[in-house]
Amino acid sequence: MSSDAKLPPYSEHPPSKGGAASSQITSNRIAGNVQTCSIKDHQLDYLKIVRESATSYYLCLSVDPAPIYRIEFVSDSNKVGDIQIFPAFDTTLPAVAAARLSSNPKSKSEPPAMICTSEPYLPDARWMPLTRAPTFVVGEDYRISIPIVTVPGAAPVQRQFTWRTSLCEPFFELWWDGPLPHVSPRGFIKDDRDSRYVFATVVRAAETGGNLIEIRRGGGLEFELAVVLGMFVILWHRNKQLV
C-alpha cells in the first residue's frame, strides 16, 4: 500500500492550528464570535402570564404563545410551597421554584412570604423572605434579596431589590437598591435613581391583552423566577388577581 494512503485528503483551506483561539485573534474583538448579554445592556424580554383556571397559569413569551412554565396555587398539606412553578413541557418534573405564603398576611412582624428560586423540594433549599418596605405614599412596597448574575458567565450573587406597588395601577416595578454593579458608589443618591434601576415591570391587563412582565435580560433564571413569584405573592397579599 502506498504511504500516500495515510495522508489526509487535499484541501485548499487547511484547518487552522490555533482552533478557536486563532479565530479570536483574527476577529475584531477578543471574545471572537462569543455573544454575551449583561444586565447593563438594558435589553428586555417580554413575558405573558395567561390564566388557565382559578388556581393555575402558564408563562410564555409575548412573541410565542407556547407555554414555558406552569404556575400553580397548591392547597395540598404536603406541598413544597403555596405557589409553585413547573416546567410546562413535562408534568412529571418537580417544581423549579416556589413561594410559601404567610398564614397571617396582616402580621407586621413576619414576612408575607418566603421565596425559593432553585430546587425548593430539597431540605437545605434557600428560602428568601419578601418583606414589607416602609413607604410614604398610599399602598405597600416590598423588599427582597434576589440572586442575580451581574457578570456574564459568573455565578449569581444576592442583591437587594424593592417592589414598588404604590404607583399608578396597573403597574408594579422592581427597583435595584443601592449603586449599580461596577459603578462607583460615589455620589449615589437613592432618591435620584432613574430607569436604569428598574429591572422588571408588571402590567396587569396590558394593552396587548393579558398580563405582561417586562424583565431585564441577563440576570439569570433564578432572578427571573423570583420576579414571577414576587408578582404572584404581591397580588395575593393585596387581594388582587390577574385577569
TrEMBL record:
Region described as Disordered: spans on this chain: 1-25
Superkingdom of the organism of origin: Eukaryota
Protein name: Uncharacterized protein
Organism: Oidiodendron maius (strain Zn)
